[in-house]
Amino acid sequence: MATRYIPTIGLEVHVQLKTRSKMFCGCPVEYGASPNSHTCPVCLGYPGALPVMNEEALRMTALTGLMLNCQVAERCKFDRKNYFYPDMPKNYQISQYDIPICLGGGVPLHDLAYPKDAQKCILHPNKVVSLTRIHLEEDVAKSFHFETSTGIDFNRAGTPLMEIVSEPDIHTPEEAFAYLTSLQQILVYGDVSDADMEKGQMRCDCNVSVRPEGTDALGTKIEIKNMNSISGVRRALAYEIQRQIDVLSAGGSLAQETRRWDDATGQTNLMRIKESAHDYRYFPEPDLLPVDTTVFMDEVRRRRPELPAEKRHRFVSDYGITDYDATVMASDRALAAYFESAAKTSAKPKSLSNWILNDLQSALAASEKTIAECPVTASQLDELVGIVDKGVINGKQAKEVFAEMFASSKSAAAVVEEKGLKQESDLGAIESLCSQAIEANPKAVAEYHAGKAASINFLKGQVMKLSQGKANPALIGDILVKLLS
Ligand SMILES: [Zn+2]
């Protein structure tokens, strides 16, 4: 029988913090600025230039630690990681070695964070992936490779970078996907990063090995570098796990190496073989004092937001919406804020959530708009919900009104008025239409009296026709029954 293999995955995620200035100098942090426009002697690594700590970056990292249940160290320090690399002119990077700012903690995975096609078969629901540590360092410059030369942009050099290291606690590509999705949501909730992988604000290195089932020792660890999309991570891991299993099953052996994912060919390719662990000759950064985090932790605790899981539970209990709807809503901070801005005063929060998750989401997708660009405000949408609830218009008309609201940003009442959609709810008017229908359809009336209750639906249809679709259907039924008794 063929041996079964168990994959083991650990992820290192680099996150660009949303500070206004760089980690150790006053240069602005700005995505997309013209190359080398945000530099100074500190971030260009001039000899003798002295770093000055950006306290906001420390606070954001500590906040991330609080959100992920880490222990935040009372004292941490910075170290020099020495190496030669063209994108690091100092020949060292200021990082944290043995006393990082955060230890332990974990990332809770929720069901909807898994890829859609994997949500039906989640192996370990409510799993929490353990973290090893979170530390803070400075980012390096960015190289651009042209045909015959390489250009270096130092705008990114020295920007604050948080590294979140997981334990080898992940066992499938789908769990890795859920981990990154959940982590990204929490970072956005805390406003510490926009965590957009396409913009390089969140980057991921994967460590993956396989071992035969029934053995304890981990297999040879292979690293996949610089992944820039969550779905790419899933594909790369699936490919790499199968590649390793194929090599081992054919009697081959694996070397510890670093590979690169090529999304176009769907393969990982060898970058370099790791002959030995790098010796970075870490030593304490002599230009920076150790950091006492206790001086700002009270403020950081006050900044801790309600997290996606907490919001989900509160939405269910406060607004009576389903757990599924609450999970979808809480997965997106902006969507949750949209819902809640009207749900607080809504008479029908459950209907409001239905409208948001169905019609509104589809309209946004079709017009390629984000919730921030939504032409219908939450209170306008709730007004529509109220109008339907009061029976002023029916469900079919409501869809028409919504489409017009989305196109024009007009209020529901204004669209109903303009289109002359108001349901006829005047009892006298409906009663006269009902009498007309009864008079014109003696056969249906006779059948109704003979006990065929469904005949009343035919009469209802006739009244609706006479009213040109505007009569309130609930009222028609009541009046017909009364007149026929
Ligand atoms: Zn600078």
Helix-strand category: alpha+beta
How much strand? 15-25%
Q: In terms of per-residue confidence, which ranges show pLDDT below 50 for 5 or more consecutive residues?
A: none
Approximately how much helix is present in the residues? 25-40%
Give the tally of β-strands. Answer: 17
- Main sheet properties: 10 strands, mixed
Question: What coarse outline follows from CA principal-axis ratios?
Answer: elongated
What is the alpha-carbon Rg in Å? 31 Å
Mean pLDDT, to the nearest integer, reads 92
**Head-to-tail CA distance between termini:** 78 Å
Bound molecules: zinc ion
Counted up, domains total 3
* Tally of helical runs: 15
Describe the structure.
The chain is an alpha+beta fold and 485 residues long. The protein folds into three domains: 5-299, no CATH class; 306-418, no CATH class; 427-484, Arc Repressor Mutant, subunit A, CATH 1.10.10. Helix content is 38%, strand content 18%. The chain has 15 helices and 17 strands. The protein has helices spanning 55-67, 173-189, 230-249, 297-303, 308-319, 323-330, 333-343, 349-366, 378-389, 395-408, 412-418, 427-440, 442-449, 455-466, 473-484; strands at residues 5-16, 71-72, 75-76, 79-82, 92-95, 102-103, 106-108, 128-138, 142-145, 150-153, 160-166, 202-212, 222-227, 257-262, 267-273, 283-284, 291-292. The strands form four sheets. Strands 1, 2, 6, 7, 8, 11, 12, 13, 14 and 15 form a ten-stranded mixed sheet that branches. The protein has a three-stranded antiparallel sheet with strand order 5-4-16, with no helix packed on it. Strand 9 and strand 10 form a beta hairpin. Helix 2 (173-189) runs antiparallel to helix 3 (230-249), helix 9 packs antiparallel against helix 10 and helix 14 crosses helix 15. The longest helix has 20 residues, at 230-249. The protein is elongated, with a radius of gyration of 31 Å. It starts with a strand and ends with a helix. The mean pLDDT is 92. Residues 22, 25, 27, 39-40, 42-43, 158 line the site of zinc ion (ZN).
